């Protein structure tokens, strides 16, 4: 593991915690969801490494073991942080895998930095194209009342909010689809997040419009999504992202909640590795 400095001005450099398996395999960069950290990819890293890939995970600013500055919780900055990781490790021909909030980084990265370092991309239970339900985005799955309730819940009682959020994260029809210890581990990771960072990042993923960003996805793309995802519902997110990216591949996991990479890890890994081989 190491720390990578993301440069965003003379007084605002921050360190991002990065884990890198190393090796000569083609790089796969795993970008975690909110409010977790790179540790949430524990079911993917060994499988990808065994398949011969160099696997890189990192903790988003404000989360996990990375620095927790007061500023920079917008997708332009998140994408620039991702570029700092790729540049510092000199990763080329990489596949970017964005889970949930991390799918926004993937989309915005290609807009801001292009695809010179990118072989392909994966949107896993991801928030694009645009979560907010607005007049010009009626298919957005996140209405104002739900968004306001999430913000208020996190503001009023952070620990209780994270417990319920991570429970819903792994639930289908109100029942956990993973062992209890998986939910407890996600809750542990969530509680590492800085409170201010969590609120600002929540605002970012809830309100950022990625519809134009998706037009910049010109590399091979895979969308993986659970059909029972109640956190980022498939119909309003993964389905629309697949329709927006010409030639993209779609794999819908039957009976999977939002945390599909944990609940259906074997299927998730198989589909991901099959895609990486092409």
UniProtKB/TrEMBL annotation:
<dbReference type="GO" id="GO:0016787">
    <property type="term" value="F:hydrolase activity"/>
</dbReference>
<keyword id="KW-0378">Hydrolase</keyword>
<dbReference type="InterPro" id="IPR000073">
    <property type="entry name" value="AB_hydrolase_1"/>
</dbReference>
<dbReference type="InterPro" id="IPR000639">
    <property type="entry name" value="Epox_hydrolase-like"/>
</dbReference>
<keyword id="KW-0560">Oxidoreductase</keyword>
<dbReference type="GO" id="GO:0004601">
    <property type="term" value="F:peroxidase activity"/>
</dbReference>
<dbReference type="InterPro" id="IPR050471">
    <property type="entry name" value="AB_hydrolase"/>
</dbReference>
<keyword id="KW-0575">Peroxidase</keyword>
<comment type="similarity">
    <text>Belongs to the AB hydrolase superfamily. Bacterial non-heme haloperoxidase / perhydrolase family.</text>
</comment>
<feature type="domain" description="AB hydrolase-1">
    <location>
        <begin position="27"/>
        <end position="262"/>
    </location>
</feature>
<dbReference type="Pfam" id="PF00561">
    <property type="entry name" value="Abhydrolase_1"/>
</dbReference>
<protein>
    <submittedName>
        <fullName>Alpha/beta hydrolase</fullName>
    </submittedName>
</protein>
<dbReference type="InterPro" id="IPR029058">
    <property type="entry name" value="AB_hydrolase_fold"/>
</dbReference>
